[in-house]
Amino acid sequence: MQRMIDVSDEVRAEIGDDEADRLLQGVTAPDRYDCTSCRAPGDVTQDPTATVLFVGEETAVLAFAHSRCIPSQVVEVAEEQLQGAVRSIGATAPHAASVPAPSAPAAPAAAPVAPAASGQPAVLGVTCGLVLCKGGEFPGVPRAALVVEPTGPIGRPGTAVGEDAFGELLMEHGFQLVADVDQPPGQLPGWSVLMAMGQLHAVLQPSPGGGTNAWWQAHQPLQVTDAWRSAASQQAQVMMLAAPAGSIGRQPREDLLRSALDNAARRGLLLGAVLPLAGT
Description:
This protein is an alpha/beta fold. It has two domains: about 5-100, no CATH class; about 125-280, no CATH class. Helices cover about 20% and strands about 30% of the residues. Strands 8, 9, 10, 11, 12, 13, 14 and 15 form an eight-stranded mixed beta sheet that branches. Strands 1, 4, 5, 6 and 7 form a five-stranded mixed beta sheet that branches. Helix 1 (about 10-15) crosses helix 2. The two termini are about 30 Å apart. About 40% of the residues are buried.
């Protein structure tokens, strides 16, 4: 019976061609699994399935996920978190397997949304914070939010240096203007926020060829507070708010961050969307 398993070049490079071929042939892959992202059951004979390799300093775990949830990829995590995950997986469901860790795992690279006007890759600053909204699905409850602001203007290819099209580019992707932070924006189909082993890894967007790719990806997995992770997990979503360079700034406290967001919204510079949480 045909098995719909995807092994990315990145995963293949880490586990080797022989192991990758055995996975594709179904020799070492289970027929059924619990998706490492959404936790729902999956079946490699019915669901397009992605292989996800979690890599620590001494241990690596190969897990499986619905391809619609996350693409096949290598995810670097702290060794102590991975050891805890191995114990948890072994006690609950046999949908992952330990494999020898590579000697020098590569850290994920940043993935900008668009080139800067100068032609250099744009650098996106990402801040995790809790934002209280009076409306929406969770009124009066702190919501997990990602605040995204470039360090400089982001222009379209071929435009003059200093010309900023960040807001326009986001709107073309489906993000909405946020006039009032108390009223959260709507959901954006196909996009998601990738968490793995309790750390923030990426913001994923739909790929033209199907599946997803990284709109933004952390150089190294980002630690988040327990309160942020708890809110994101309980609500199964993250509110992403973004504004052009210089609109929000680096704020040391959440009350100052909220004030900066309110100011950007009043000036018509704040965009946003609610994205489902992929992973835990």
